[in-house]
Design goal:
Pnp Oxidase, Chain A, homodimer, seven-stranded antiparallel beta sheet, disordered N terminus, 5 helices, 12 strands, alpha+beta, 222 residues, four-stranded antiparallel beta sheet
């Protein structure tokens, strides 16, 4: 809680406040391990929640998408958004149904995104996004051309008003439930890579690159 | 598209409409494989997106939580919500940076949730939730008591206005990019269980149950 000014009444964790964190280090660690977020925006009073990828550079998050998408049109218009990232780490089996839980790490960022106009920042942001998802790939793929850059919108969301929430460890049961005769503990869950599948149209002589073969994220599977 | 009435202008997929599905079978398959959703709601014009678990019975989704939580208070008050479920299936590596993508399956449900008042429906809904996340567990844990039921709110969200979006398969590059000299294909990703970790306070004689040891979801890792 080194930077309590990042928390406002809007991001203050109400439920289970002992699981809350408001420091950048905790938030950045979660934001850097994940790459899929859910963005909430409002159209005529109706909230929408859409999954998309993101990248982080310093205290900014970058999101990209088609200039034609409903979400990006809303965001460009300066609508308030909420960007939420969740890493699911396990199922927590308590003795009582009531105390069952999940281990997870999540970050909520509130704010307004700004369209990245500058061509250099835009290209750099796309590289940040790409390298965030799959480090090493950018330099081995065909770079974006003018037409593609024009079709892509990039938005910048400053990480200013945010909070993190983390649950780790074993179940916590009511004291009188500990003798209850059932197994209790944690079933860890992690997003794990499978065996790479080559494009059927891949020509001969292209080995699976090291950055694909050894893909892992953060504390992934550790 | 057997039930096109489930799609409205609000759930109609604008971007990449060929990836959209509006039939219940597709949506239910995704909703049944996942158990974590992101719920969007609005407070004073600001959208919030919060991760939570859910269960499905027939054409209803059930969500539970503390009666004190901000999200549940909003939902109980009849605020419009958006419940989004996303399964991430892989990274799609194209020749061009621009055509990189992800394989995923997602469902968006719009609507208004209703508090479940009836004690029988409430208990049944909690069982649906528990069995949705970890089939077999409910009967092996200590059942909810009066006090716990009072502390828990259960809400019902009918699956009426919804859409699904699915991307599968290899990358799709521009025809002129296929000779570009790089590996292309899919790196599959799936939420995979690790080795169960017993609660340090677990007494002797409790083996890891079969429903934990053999945990898998839907087309999980297939």
């Amino acid at each position: 809680m080194s930077e309590p000014h990042t928390s406002t009444v809007r991001t203050r964790v109400v439920r289970e406040p002992h699981r809350a964190a408001y420091d950048r280090e905790t938030a950045y660690r979660i934001l850097d391990e994940a790459f899929l977020c859910h963005i909430g925006f409002v159209v005529e009073g109706q909230p929408y929640v859409i999954p998309t990828s993101y990248g982080r550079k310093d205290s900014n998050l970058y999101i990209h998408g088609s200039a034609a998408s409903r979400m990006l049109r809303q965001m460009k218009a300066g609508a308030p958004i909420c960007l939420t990232v969740t890493l699911l780490d396990g199922l927590v089996l308590a003795r009582s149904v009531f105390n069952h839980s999940m281990n997870y790490r999540s970050v909520v960022v509130l704010g307004t995104a700004t369209l990245v106009d500058d061509p250099d920042e835009k290209l750099a942001a796309l590289r940040v996004l790409s390298e965030h998802i799959l480090p090493g790939r950018w330099n081995e793929a065909r770079q974006p051309n003018e037409r593609e850059l024009k079709q892509t919108s990039v938005l910048r969301l400053p990480i200013e008003e945010f909070s993190a929430k983390v649950r780790t460890g074993p179940p916590v049961d009511d004291e009188e439930d500990y003798p209850f005769p059932t197994w209790a503990g944690v079933l860890p869950l992690a997003l794990s890579p499978g065996t790479p599948v080559a494009d059927p149209r891949l020509g001969p002589g292209h080995e699976v690159p090291e950055y694909v073969r050894s893909y892992r994220r953060g504390e992934f599977n550790s």
